[in-house]
Amino acid sequence: MEFKVSSWLLLVSFCSFFFGLHPISGQCLNDQKSLLLALKNDLKFDSSLSTKLVGWNQSADCCHWGGVACDKAGHVTGIDISNESVSGGIDGSSALFGLRFLRSLNLAYNSFHSAQLPSGFGKLTLMSYLNLSNANFQGQIPGDFPLMKRLVTLDISSSPYYTLALENPDLKMLIQSLTGLRELYLDNINITTHGYHWAELISSSLPNLQVLSLKGCGLSGPLDSSLANLKYLSVIILDENTFSSDVPESFANLQNLTVLSLQACNLSGSLPKKIFQVPSLKTIDLSSNVVLNGPLPEFPENGSLQNLVLSYTVVGGTLPDSIGSLRMLSRIELRGCKFSGPLPKSMQNLTRLVYLDLSVNQFNGPIPSFQLSKNLVSVNFYQNNLTGGIPSHWEGLNRLQFLNLGYNSLSGNLPESLLTLTSLEDLELPNNRLSGQISKLTDVSSFRLRDLDLSGNKFEGPIPGFIFKLPRLSTLALATNNFAGSVDLDMFGKLEELYALDLSFNDLVVSVNANRSTFSSLSKLNSLMLASCKMQQLPDLQNQSRLMMLDLSDNQLSGEIPNSIWKVGNGYLRFLNLSHNKFSSLQKPYTFPFLLDVLDLHSNHLTGDIPIPPRRVYHLDYSSNNFGSSIPANFGNVLTSTLYFSISNSKVVGVIPESISNASSLHVLDLSQNALRGPIPSSIGNFKVLESLDLSVNMLNGSIPEQLANLTSLSFLNLSYNHLSGKIPQGSVFQALTELSFEGNRGLCGPPLKKSCDNKQMSPQVEY
Ligand SMILES: *[C@@H]1O[C@H](CO)[C@@H](O)[C@H](O)[C@H]1NC(C)=O
Ligand SMILES: *[C@@H]1O[C@H](CO)[C@@H](O)[C@H](O)[C@H]1NC(C)=O
Ligand SMILES: *[C@@H]1O[C@H](CO)[C@@H](O)[C@H](O)[C@H]1NC(C)=O
Ligand SMILES: *[C@@H]1O[C@H](CO)[C@@H](O)[C@H](O)[C@H]1NC(C)=O
Ligand SMILES: *[C@@H]1O[C@H](CO)[C@@H](O)[C@H](O)[C@H]1NC(C)=O
Ligand SMILES: *[C@@H]1O[C@H](CO)[C@@H](O)[C@H](O)[C@H]1NC(C)=O
Ligand SMILES: *[C@@H]1O[C@H](CO)[C@@H](O)[C@H](O)[C@H]1NC(C)=O
Ligand SMILES: *[C@@H]1O[C@H](CO)[C@@H](O)[C@H](O)[C@H]1NC(C)=O
Ligand SMILES: *[C@@H]1O[C@H](CO)[C@@H](O)[C@H](O)[C@H]1NC(C)=O
Ligand SMILES: *[C@@H]1O[C@H](CO)[C@@H](O)[C@H](O)[C@H]1NC(C)=O
Ligand SMILES: *[C@@H]1O[C@H](CO)[C@@H](O)[C@H](O)[C@H]1NC(C)=O
Ligand SMILES: *[C@@H]1O[C@H](CO)[C@@H](O)[C@H](O)[C@H]1NC(C)=O
């Protein structure tokens, strides 16, 4: 230990000697030291989270204290106590304002708990660098700020929640004094310029400006070309303002422009093509301007562009071949644009690419090889129209963590060189036409794969054994493929991180070993989807305290639905699908989980009482059962948030309860093919959002309630094959219906049936 400490010290002094880690500084003067100690005393900070302040004490030369810099004479010239968990303690009397030689002060990333900024800064007339960003000060910028006439860098950016006000002084008063500013950061400060146009004000006041960052300042447009007069301007960040204008092409005259960021500014017009030709440009971010359009220009040869970010715009057309000549390009984000056509082969020359997102476009044709892009970390081609195979050579892409090729039309096999990239954490290939067997791998203990989605393809053969051994696997989706063979759920029992498992719709036979059940001890499982898995036995899920989604539909499960199933997920179960099984009843007593919002029990053999659903349920399907009982009188009272309810074809008897009128959120109500009698309740007119009403094939009688004509959202109405009589109500609603059927009701008359009501007296009778 002693050896280690001394060799570390040796290294530090060696480095300081050769590389000058310490700024050259004199011995600290006593008054300066006292002021620093008084400052430390003023400040409230958490000593366990502080790395610098905590070490400020009397013994050492104060010029060597953490975050302190001095001049040769021993005056303190710089203090950096950013991110030191300071929570308060600077007021006008603070020792800070006695440090008259201070040129640089950084209090950023502390939490001054909405305290006001004190006056006193005006005394620090030598100050050239002031950084108060994200320090959680609030209120007015003090009136003496403009006295720091030597300021070169001013950063008072804040998070959107703790914002400083720039009203008195306002922007004009501030910058007309601080004419030497080269870097100005005012992110999230509400700037009111009292009639002065902010861009003209800045361009006429700050001739030396190089960096301008005014994100989320509430600026309005149009975006003024006067900024282009600032010849040194290099970084322009104006995200999240509302300019509602074009980007001035004159920005292309800024010879040293490196960053242009105008995210979410309601920009219109087409891409400013000339700006792409600026040789110094490294970052252009015009994303989230949803009407910004136009094609990409040809890129300059040997351009410096590193970040090309245009996601969520309507920029489109083809990606020019010349993109391949942007050798410095490391980030391309074109998600959700209007691009089409093939991916240029030249992209394989983008050797510095790190992050590539072309998702949600209409690119077609094959994926180029990224063999040379060894720095790639993330590649996303999700939702395009890409065809051909997955490129076969991924060797050496040892940084790749994320690959999403989902929702394309890719075919062929899953290349082994991709599967064996140990760096890969998330591989998403759903909804393609991929086929063949998955390679058998042996030692996967060092794999970082967390999410594997192969669903919606044509993969075949057994689920390869290595999958059960992937140490970090959290999401496994293999649904809707041709995987075959027998799988015991316990085979997944070693995947301790397993969060979501979907094996539905394959050719698998999934079994449960009730004796061992390592599966039931998996503690993180949230979603278990085993539809169509030929299961004959329910898995033991009692210990699954986090399970929220359970699909066991279309299996061979029978007997009682055990009441323990309602305790799965500690009462937090939200989705349960047990449809298409052979369940005969619900084991009593049972209490539905409070949060259940989808309950699907359709196509079983359920008999007896119709279960009263949980209150929050929004999708409830009891159809195709054998209840043989009537709908409980209070049933509608619990359906107040329900959007979908069907109990069609379930041998339901009795009447439609009046309480159904409380189910006023329903979009779909299907009571068809039962033995319901009595009238259609007139309160059905409450169903303002009902889109589909099916009461066909019952024994309902009486007249059709007038109120039906008030269901303005209705697009499907089937009242056929009942005993309804009287006049069909008139209403424009009925003309708008896409499907309408009254047939098989012998007593009905009116225009839709071409059966006049005149000759016969239609007195609606109600029979029970
Ligand atoms: C000053 O701080 C250092 C580091 O925390 C500590 O080792 C030293 O004992 C302190 N000296 C005094 C006089 O408090
Ligand atoms: C602040 O310090 C913490 C660790 O002490 C670090 O994780 C974090 O990134 C720092 N934040 C900034 C903005 O430097
Ligand atoms: C202000 O300080 C923070 C934290 O050290 C830093 O991230 C930020 O870049 C600084 N701002 C300027 C303009 O130097
Ligand atoms: C910005 O300040 C102006 C004037 O003080 C005020 O009317 C406006 O509501 C403020 N905007 C926000 C988002 O706080
Ligand atoms: C542009 O930057 C270069 C190098 O940083 C510098 O020499 C040159 O003076 C700058 N030009 C302007 C107009 O700012
Ligand atoms: C966005 O700009 C358009 C003009 O291009 C304008 O009609 C619209 O009102 C603007 N939206 C907002 C929120 O300012
Ligand atoms: C681009 O760079 C290459 C190699 O550095 C050089 O040979 C070529 O002349 C450059 N082209 C342009 C147009 O500057
Ligand atoms: C990649 O760059 C090289 C050298 O500039 C060039 O010869 C080649 O044609 C480029 N490849 C593609 C596919 O554009
Ligand atoms: C996808 O490509 C196929 C043929 O390659 C074409 O028929 C289809 O229209 C395309 N779909 C879209 C959405 O572009
Ligand atoms: C489970 O255990 C019982 C007796 O404890 C035994 O009869 C049965 O064969 C076992 N079932 C399986 C699948 O191992
Ligand atoms: C369920 O948990 C209980 C208590 O933690 C434990 O005794 C039991 O063995 C567990 N059952 C299964 C099947 O893991
Ligand atoms: C239909 O709704 C209107 C307005 O909400 C109401 O005045 C009218 O009485 C309703 N008609 C029927 C038949 O319920």
Q: What does it look like?
A:
The structure is a single chain. By secondary structure, this protein is mainly β. The chain has a domain at 679-768: Leucine-rich repeat, LRR (right-handed beta-alpha superhelix). The protein is built from 6 helices and 51 strands. The strands form 7 sheets. The chain has a 29-stranded mixed β-sheet, with no helix packed on it. The protein has a 5-stranded parallel β-sheet with strand order 17-19-21-23-25, with no helix packed on it. The protein has a 5-stranded parallel β-sheet with strand order 27-29-31-33-35, with no helix packed on it. β2 and β3 form a beta hairpin. Residues 1-23 and 761-768 have low confidence and may be disordered. The structure holds 2-acetamido-2-deoxy-beta-D-glucopyranose (12 copies).
